[in-house]
Amino acid sequence: MKFFLKKWFDNSQSQVELLADSDDIDWARIIPFIAIHLACLLVFVVGVSWVAVFVCLLSYFIRMFAITAFYHRYFSHKSFKTSRLVQGVFAVIGATATQRGPIWWAAHHRHHHIHADDEQDTHSPKDGFWHSHLKWFLMKKNFTTKSEYVKDLEKFSELRFIDRFDILFPILYATGLFILGGYLGKHYPHLNTSAGQLLIWGYFISTVLLSHVTYCINSLAHIFGFRTYETKDNSKNNFVLAIFTLGEGWHNNHHCNPGSVKQGFTWWQLDVSYYILWLMNKLGLVWDMKYPNHALLEKKQISGDA
Ligand SMILES: [Zn+2]
Ligand SMILES: [Zn+2]
After folding, report:
1. Ligand 2 centroid to residue 256 C-alpha, Å
2. Long-range Cβ contact pairs of 51-55 (< 8 A, separation 24 or more)
3. Kind and range of the H or E element at 81?
4. Are 185 and 163 in contact (CB under 8 A)?
5. How far is the CA of 254 from the centre of ligand 2 (A)?
6. What's the pTM?
7. Which of 34, 106, 133, 198 could be stapled to 76 by a disulfide with Cβ–Cβ 3.0 to 4.6 Å?
8. Cα of 217 from ligand 2 centre, angstroms
C-alpha cells in the first residue's frame, strides 16, 4: 500500500517495477483517472454560476494552449525557441492539464511521428479507437519515458523535476481554484459561487473536457477528416477538432511538416495557438519560429485545396 501511494507522487518509484513489455493496465494509475471523471458528478452538489462556467472555459483555454503550443509544438517539435523561464512556466501550466510532464509527453509524441500508424505506433486507431484514445497511456509499458528520444529535454533539472512529481501540479492548481472560489464566495456573494464550485468546474470538468479533446488528436484525427498531403500514416485534417484544440486538428498538415510552428496552412484553417505564438513573438517571448516548408508541401500535395 505504501508503495502504491508513493508511486502516485513520485514517478521514479515506477522504475522499480519496469514492466517494459507488459500490456497490462496499470490499476494504480487508473484509479485517479476514473476518480477525476467521477468527481465531475459533484456538479449536482455544487451547482453552477456564470463565474464557474467562465473559469472552466478559461482554465480549458490556457491549459490547451500550454499543451498545443508548448508540449506539442515546442517541447516535442522544437518549432520555435524561447527563454528557459518561459519554457519552465509553460511546462508547469501544461503539467496542470494532468497529461504527465513535458519530457514523458514529448518522448511518446516523437516516437509517434516516427512510427505513425505502423505496428510500433503506441496509439494508432488501427489497434482500436479506445486504444488510441486512452487505453495506451493506462498500460504499464507506456508509463515509462522513452528516454532515448528526449535527451535534449532531460538536460533541464526543472523539467526532470516536473516529470518526476507531475501529480503535484494538478493538486496545487485544484487547491488554488478551491481557495479562489472560497474567497469569491465570501467577499462577493452576488457571484453565487463557492470553493467547491470552482474546484469542480475549474479543475475537474475543465480537465476532463481538455483531456478528451486532446486524446481525439491521437484517435479521431487519424480516422475522420480529409487528406491534403501524402503521408505514410492515416492523419487527417479536421475543422471541428481544429476549433476545440486551438489548431491541432490540421493533423495531416502537421504529419506532413511536423517542424512547422503553424499547423493551419491556409487563411481559413483556424490555428489559434499559432496566432497567440505570433503575438508572443512580437512581444519577444518566443523567437526563431519555423514556417511551413513550401517545397515539401508542394511535393506531397494530393489535392488542389492547399
Ligand atoms: Zn498523429
Ligand atoms: Zn506532432
Report:
1. 10
2. 51/184, 51/191, 51/192, 51/193, 51/197, 51/198, 52/181, 52/193, 52/197, 52/198, 52/200, 52/201, 52/202, 53/201, 55/177, 55/180, 55/198, 55/201, 55/202, 55/206
3. strand 81-82
4. no
5. 6
6. 0.94
7. 106
8. 10
C-alpha cell at 195: 470553493
186 inside domain: yes
Report the separation in Å between the CA atom of 19 and the middle of ligand 1, taken as the mean of its atom positions.
Answer: 25
Can you spell out the DSSP letters for 202-220?
Answer: IIIIHHHHHHHHHHHHHTG
CA–CA separation, 74 vs 57, rounded Å?
23
Q: Which ligand is nearest to the CA of 72?
A: 2
Residue carrying C-alpha cell 522499480: 16
Compute the distance from residue 108 Cα to the ligand 1 centre, in Å: 11
Tally the domains of the chain: 1
